[in-house]
Each structure stands twice: as structure tokens, then as C-alpha cells.
Amino acid sequence: MSLPFRPASAPWLLAHELRLAWRGFRAGRKSKGAMVAFAILGVLILVGGVAMGLALRDIEVPIVPLAVVIADLALAVVLTLMLSSTLAASADALYERGDLDLLFSSPLRPGRVLLIRALGLAVNAGLWFLLPTLLLLTPSIVLGHPAWAAVFVVLIAAALCATGVGLLLAMALFALIGPRRTRTVAQILAALIGAGFFLASQYRNLLGEQRSESLIARIALDAKEGRIQPPPFADLPLRAAVGEPLPLLAMVAIGAGVFALAVVVLGRRFADAAAATQGAETRKAARGPTRAFAAGAFQATVRKELRLMRRDAALLSQVLLRVLYLAPLALVMARNAGTLPTASLAASAAAVIILAGQVAGSLAWITLSAEDAPDLLAVAPTQMKVLRQAKLAAALIPVAILLVAPVAVLAWYQPLAGLWTAIGAGLSAWCAGLVHVWRQKPGKRADFRRRRSGSLLVAIAEIAVSLLIGAATALAIAGLLVWAVLPLIVAGALMMALRRTDEQIAAALRAAA
Amino acid sequence: MTDALIVRGLSKAFAKPAVSDLDLTVRAGELYALLGPNGAGKTTTLRMVAGLTQPDAGEIAIFGVDARKDPAGAKALVAWAPDEAMIYDKLTPLEYLEFVAGLWSIEPRTAKAKAEQLLSTLGLADEARRRCEGFSRGMKQKVALAGALIHDPKLLILDEPLTGLDAAAARLVKDMLQARVDAGGTVILTTHILEVAERMADRIGIIAGGRLLAEGTLDELRGRAGEASGKTLEDVFLQLTAEVHT
Q1: Between A191 and which of A199, A317, A391, B231 could a Cys-Cys bridge form, CB atoms 3.0 to 4.6 Å apart?
Q2: At A64, is the secondary structure helix, strand, or coil?
Q3: Helix (H/G/I), strand (E/B), else coil: B40
Q4: Is B131 on the interface with A (CB under 8 A)?
Q5: In the A/B pair of chains, how many CB contacts fall below 8 A?
């Protein structure tokens, strides 16, 4: 379908970017189930929005410290998540050589290319927040608060600001550490920024304070009791969101200003940086003696998968993100294992087990479904069963390494709880991996972040089994061993329902190919 | 002597027939060129021989091993090198060869020595411990070729092996293939560069519309096409394939 704009104009190029982004989004969500899930989620948000609209019908938002702090925190969270997304995307944009080669070899000015690409990034980052906000807030807007439509404008300003900062950061990284490392560092930085608020909210746990309390709850309490006086201009986001013209204008000016600054400053450099990435992947050859070759298909496959995982920046950043969420829990468990009430200990152990399943599932998807050279494996005389076992083992090794320290410390203080946690985490990781063995679907490493949209069934099953095993472990730690059997039976039944024979796996893969 | 490859009644259809009732024999120790226009069924045929695509019907025997009944036994004798190199960008050539050797269960010390020798022969010794992600297409093709040769296959199948190679690399690959045949190995290749087939192949098969049109030495093909002895393979090829379209 041709685009309804003058060729080579800015809107035409933007429409092209958005069309590619939309097709990329759709490509990973072809199944009806995924679309149904999105529709259900949309309806649920809308229902929540209607309820909120009715409840807030005659209520005006007061400009008081508590409301100001909540609005500031909400905006900070949104900005952080947007920045996380735009930073990674900005680094990727520099590496999309084929696309950029075509654009830069055309008569288009590089500045315009950057402007449109940056707008595409902003739209992509903003839409994830605009769409649910649209559903949630529209009933309130219709039911007596038309000025609240300003929230959308604030979100657009935030997306522009985050894109500007993301681009500037990516280019700064590019200048500081060179093109080769920029993408890796940007991915990891994006993960750290994304998890920043969670870690900040857990600072008391991380710093060793005994009482577990979230940062947000603490600030809210202080504000409510009048201990916090927001600094000047801190009320800008709240006033803008409720539609006050001057604050709204200021927010737009800030967002658009940062965006424009990034585009103007980076216009020419962006083209140069993109050009400089050609051949940037050339690394220095490794030094030192070479290792002995692996013996046999199993060992060779495990070694190959571990190497590929270690060298995959996007995967590392995603796993790091999960580990960051795991760290405060593990610290709480390790530090307070001797004194923590049984219920808290059981809940923390369950959380560790669920996260172990999640990490194992992610790694198993990479090793099993995202094989780069499936034909090479298919022409080899090795049994597919052996290769699958090796790939599953490779996915579980990093999980085991991650769990060793927290489980060992827990076992030191509470041996039985440590034993149950180790068994539960191992079982959860193994089951998550098995789900991917049985239900593997060929994909690409680049699609890692949206791997779940490929099969809703696998995504739900993976989470459900981890939840059930987590619950069983929590019950066992709490001393309710008999009750622990129940979720295990359900998990076992679920696994049996998902199980496929080697022939069925081969047939499914053939059909997918 | 057992034939390297015997294909009988091989058929495969996707949306429409890709290969129809194909018979083919490749003798041990020869270089066989399978030629045909785009979409003729060359790659589908070779993928079935390599065990990558399940035939709808027919028989495939590789050095007497029934590839449909004993796929692992047949695969142990074959190497498959497609036009798109089956390599991993994040592995070095040496790591890649370690993996491939593992898949074919080659003894580690033998495999390592062979890998180093192959990389040296292919002019990749200096790149042996550099990740493939920065390599040119030609270099990646060479790494894939080293992977195909590391387990010393009795039958080497190459789909467009010279695509993307510069003149020097193409010469190197051709010399390696010739040396392999001279040493008693069997090579099947597809190519659109008819001069290569004309100069290198012991026998040539021409396929179109999923059927084998003609098979034999260049002189036999000339005879089949009714061409004078001075005609090139290109003339013969165009005449034979034109008959299918008319």
C-alpha cells in the first residue's frame, strides 16, 4: 500500500517508520490468542477507567504536597521506563546498517533522517503509555474532567524528552567507548535504568535496614504528615496534567526543547556515527593458548550455547534486569534468614523460585528456539534428542550459578528452608526449560524481548508452573508439607498436558518451517 | 564400486511440485554439477539428499546407506554447504569448527589439528580467533566450507559455493574441490556459472521443472542436444531448458 504523503517529505518518511514499527509489532503477535489477550486487557483497563471516572466525577485534584509527590514520582517512573526503551533503541538505530545505508545514500538530508528516526522512537516509547492511559482516562474526561486530556500532552512531552536524552546518551557512549561497545553498554544501561526505581524503592533492604519498607510508601507517608515540602516547580507536572495552561506549556517546551536540542546537535554526527559502525564489529583476536576441543556433540553444544549467551548483549541485559529484581529478595533472605518470620521466608523463597523459572525459560528460549543455524544441526548425524538435552543443560547452568550464593547462605542459617528452596528453584527452572523443549517454535535472537507473544500458551504455562512450584515450596518451608503436594500435582498435570514426544516436536518444527 | 548417490523416483511438492519423479546417479570419486534455471528444483533435491527436507516419495541411497531408513548413518557420510553460510556470528572460526566437529563426533585432538590446517589452507589462520560477525561474505563462506570439510565427508554437497567469493578465493575453493575429487572424494555442486561446471565437472545433470532433462559428460550432453562438438555448455543448457518451456 502506498503512503498518502508527498514522497521524501517528513510525514512520508515518518509514516514509513511507523509502518515498519507496526509490522514489526504485528510480526511477533500473529496468534489470535495474543490479540485476544490484548483485547481483554484493554477492556479491563477501560472498565477500570469507567469505575475511576464515576468515582472521581465531582472531585478536583488538590494541589497539595502528597498529590505533587505522587505526580512527580509517576512522571519519574514513566520517564525512566521511556528512557530505558529509547536508549536501547537509539543504540540499535545506529546499527541498522541496511536501512540507514539506503536512507543516507538517498538525496534526503541526514538531519531529516535523524529527525524522523527520533520521532519514530518517541512514538514507539510514548504509545506504550498513551494507549492504556487513553483507555483509563477517557471515561473521566467524558464524565466531567475535560482538562485531564492534558495528561496525554504531558506523556507526549515525556516521550520527546526521553527520546532526546536517549539519543544524547547513546551518542555520548559512542564517543566515549566506541561503536563496538555502545550497543552492549546501552542495553545494560537501559536494563539498569529500567530497574532503577525498583532498586531505589528497595534501598533500605539493600543497605541492610531491618524494616522492609518501600521508598514510595515512605515518601507518601512523609508528605501526608507534612514532613515534605516540595521544592519550587515540583508541582509543574501535576498542574500540567490537570490542564493548567502555563505549566502544560512549560512541560511541552521542556520535552520538545530536549528533543530538538538532541536532533540539532546530533544531526551530522548521527550520519557519521552510523557510517562509522560499518566494520565496527571487528574485534581483536583472542590471545593465549587455545582450549582443547570439546568431546562429542553434547559437550560441544553446551559450550557453544554458553559462548553465544555470554556474547549476547540484549540477552545479558534482560537477564541482568531479572537478577536486579532478584537481588533485594536474595539479600533479605540471606541477611535475615535466622530471624525472619516463617511466612516472610516462605514468600521470599517462592519469589526466588518464580524468578529462577523465568530466567531459565528465557535462556531456554534462546538456546532452543533461537538457533541461528538450524540446518547445520539438521544435517548432523547427532540425534536431535541429544542436542535438545545439551541446549537445556546450557540454559540451566547460568541459573544454577546465579542461585548458588543465596541458596548457600540460606542453607547455612536454615538448612531445611535452603534445601526446599534449592529443590524448588531447580524444579522450576527445569520445568520452564522443558516447556521450551516441548513447545519450541523457531525464532530469531533479535525477537527475544517479544518471545512471549509468539505463543500465549507457552507463556502462561511457563509462569503457571513456576507459580505452582513456588507455592509448593513456600508451603513446605511453612511446614505444611501435605498441602505442598497439591500445587505440585497441578504443576505435574500441567506439564503432562504440555508434553510432546520427539516425533511431535519434529512434526511441529517442520510445520513451523 | 558403490555409487556415491542413487536417487530414484524422488518427489516433493510444496504449493506446486518442486521435484517430480527424479532419478539421479552420482558415481563415487566424481565431481557432479547439477544445473538448472532458477526454481528448477536443484536446492530442494539437494536438501532432500542432505536430510533437511522430507521427500513425499522416492528413495535416496548414499554409499549404499538408505537415507530415509538410516538418516544418521547417511548424514555421517555427507557434508552440506548452502549458499548462505550456516555459521554463528558470535563464534570464532575455531569455535565454530569445534562445534561442528562435536556434532560429527570427531575425536577432539584430531579435530583441532584438522581445524587449524583447514583454516590455514583457506587463508583464515590470522582470523581463527576473531568472531565471524565482522567477516565479509566470502570469509564466512570459507568458514562454512571448513565446517563442511572438518569431518572428512565422503560426499560433499555444495549449493552455489562460489557466490560472494572474490577471484582469488573462488580459485582457492575450486582447487580444493578438485584436490578432493583427485583424492577420491565425491562432490556435488550447483552453480549458475556454467564455465565452472564445464571446466570442473566430470558429469553434469540438467534439471528443470523438477525433472532431470539430461545427464552425462559435456560431450554426451552435446549429443543429446544435437549440437556440434564446438558448442559450449551454455548453448547446450539453454537449448535443453528452452525445450521444457516450449
Answers
A1: A317
A2: coil
A3: coil
A4: yes
A5: 116
DSSP string, A366-425: IIII--S-HHHHHHSSS-HHHHHHHHHHHHHHHHHHHHHHHHHHHHHH-HHHHHHHHHHH
Disruptive mutation site among B91, B96, B98, B137 for chain A (greatest number of A CBs within 10 Å):
B98
For the CA atoms of A161, A163, A168, A169, the dihedral, rounded to the nearest 10 degrees, stands at 110
Mutate to test the interface with A, among B90, B110, B139, B151 (most CBs of A within 10 A): B90
Q: Is A513 on the interface with B (CB under 8 A)?
A: no
Interface confidence: ipTM more than 0.95:
no
Instruction: In whole angstroms, give the CA distance from residue A266 to residue A111.
Output: 8
Q: Which three cell numbers stand for residue A451?
A: 518471545
Distances (CA, A) of A391 to A52, A369, A399, A463, A506: 48, 10, 13, 20, 16
Answer whether B201's CB lies under 8 Å from B161's CB. no
Name residue A197's amino acid.
Answer: F
- In this structure, are residues A88 and A187 in contact, taking their beta carbons and an 8 Å threshold? yes
CA B101 to chain CA centroid, Å, is: 19
* A489 to A272, A458, A486, B122: CA distances (angstroms): 60, 19, 5, 57
∠ Cα A207 A210 A216 (to 5°): 70
> pLDDT 10s per residue in chain A (513 long)?
566 777 778 888 888 888 877 777 766 555 666 677 788 888 999 999 999 988 888 888 888 888 888 888 888 888 888 888 888 787 777 666 556 767 777 777 777 888 888 888 898 889 889 999 999 999 999 988 899 999 999 999 999 999 999 888 888 888 787 766 777 777 777 777 777 766 666 666 555 554 545 566 677 677 767 777 777 788 899 999 988 999 999 999 999 999 999 888 887 677 676 666 655 545 666 777 778 898 899 999 999 999 999 888 777 777 777 777 666 666 666 566 566 667 777 888 888 898 899 899 989 999 998 898 999 999 999 999 999 999 999 999 999 998 888 788 888 888 888 899 999 999 999 999 999 999 888 887 777 766 665 677 788 888 899 999 999 999 998 888 889 999 999 999 999 999 998 888 888 887 776
> In angstroms, rounded to a whole number, what is the distance separating the alpha carbons of residues A130 and A164?
18
Question: Long-range contact list for A4-13, CB < 8 A, 24+ apart?
Answer: A8/A106, A8/A107, A8/A108, A10/A112, A10/A115, A10/A116, A13/A108, A13/A112, A13/A113, A13/A116
What is the SS3 string spanning A180-242? HHHHHHHHHHHHHHHHHHHHHHCHHHHHCCCCCCCHHHHHHHHHHCCCCCCCCCCCHHHHHHC
- The chain B residue lying nearest A313, using CA atoms, is B90
Query: Residue A283, Cβ neighbours under 10 Å: how many?
Result: 13
The closest of A102, A110, A86, A94 to A277, measured between CA atoms, is A94
Residues B51 and A377 sit within 8 Å (Cβ to Cβ): no
- Prediction pTM value: 0.76
**Radius of gyration of chain A, Cα coordinates, nearest whole angstrom:** 25
A98 touches chain B (CB under 8 A): no
How far apart are the C-alpha atoms of A288 and A411, rounded to whole Å?
39
Q: Provide the shortest C-alpha distance from residue B241 to chain A (in Å).
A: 30
Q: Angle of helix A415-438 relative to helix A456-477, nearest 10 degrees?
A: 170
Q: Which helix (H) or strand (E) holds B24?
A: strand B17-26
Gap between the Cα atoms of A219 and A210, Å rounded: 18
> A372, A376, A385, A502: which to substitute to probe chain B, counting the most B Cβ within 10 Å?
A376
- CB contacts, 8 Å: A378 with chain B: 51-52
Quote the cell numbers at residue A202.
528497595
**Residue A53 Ramachandran class (φ > 0 left, ψ -120 to 50 alpha, else beta):** alpha
- The residue count of chain A comes to 513
Which residues from A are below 8 Å from B159, CB to CB?
none
